[in-house]
Amino acid sequence: SRVVAETFDQQITNSSSSQDAPSIYMNKIVYADDKRGNYNRDIYMYDLTTNKEIQITNIPSQKYNPFIYKDKIVWEDNRNGNWDIYMYDLDNKHETRITNDSSYQNHPFIYKDKIVWEDNRNGNWDIYMYDLDNKHETRITNDSSYQNHPFIYKDKIVWEDNRNGN
User: What confidence tens digit (pLDDT) does each residue in 150-164 have?
Assistant: First the structure.
């Protein structure tokens, strides 16, 4: 697969490797790319203003599901033997590990100063949120069924929920 900017009908990538999971904010597109091979995927950003591709990550591991909001990029990463959430700040060029739990954290999404994700540290998938301003993590759901794929906008968080059996 390739990353294509539909509005412009412009192909963004031209590598023979696979690129997927694009996310866009203003003039910046982020995506995962397996140029390295052997299941080592990195996060890249393409700037539509400069037409330049920038490699965001450079540590051998699998990385998936990047999302961008303003100057922050989040993704899931298994460099520690399990899936954690990481963030990269484009302004200060600094990477931060957001989660540090031995279970899996997946499908991050960022809006303003809040990051949400699905997390299975309690034996099932729940939704968690991290506030970048006060560096505080909050468990959002506490149900024995699975909650997945969260999104946040303003003061609302939505997710898929299996508590009714579907």
Answer: 999 999 999 999 888
State how far the Cα of 115 lies from the Cα of 31, in Å rounded to an integer: 18
Task: Provide the whole-model pTM.
Answer: 0.91
Q: Which tokens is 41 given?
A: 């995927």
SS3 readout for 4-20: EECCCCEECCCCCCCEE
Please return the burial class of 3, using the count of CB atoms within 10 Å of its CB with bins 0-12, 13-18 and 19+.
Answer: buried
Distance between CA atoms of residues 74 and 98, nearest Å: 9
Task: For residues 113 and 70, give the distance between their C-alpha atoms in angstroms, rounded to a whole number.
Answer: 10
Q: Using one digit for the tens of pLDDT, what is the confidence trace for 28-44?
A: 999 999 988 777 899 99
End-to-end CA separation in angstroms for the chain: 30
Q: Residue 139 corresponds to which amino acid?
A: R
Of 69, 75, 16, nearest to 44 (Cα)? 75
CA 118 to chain centre: 11
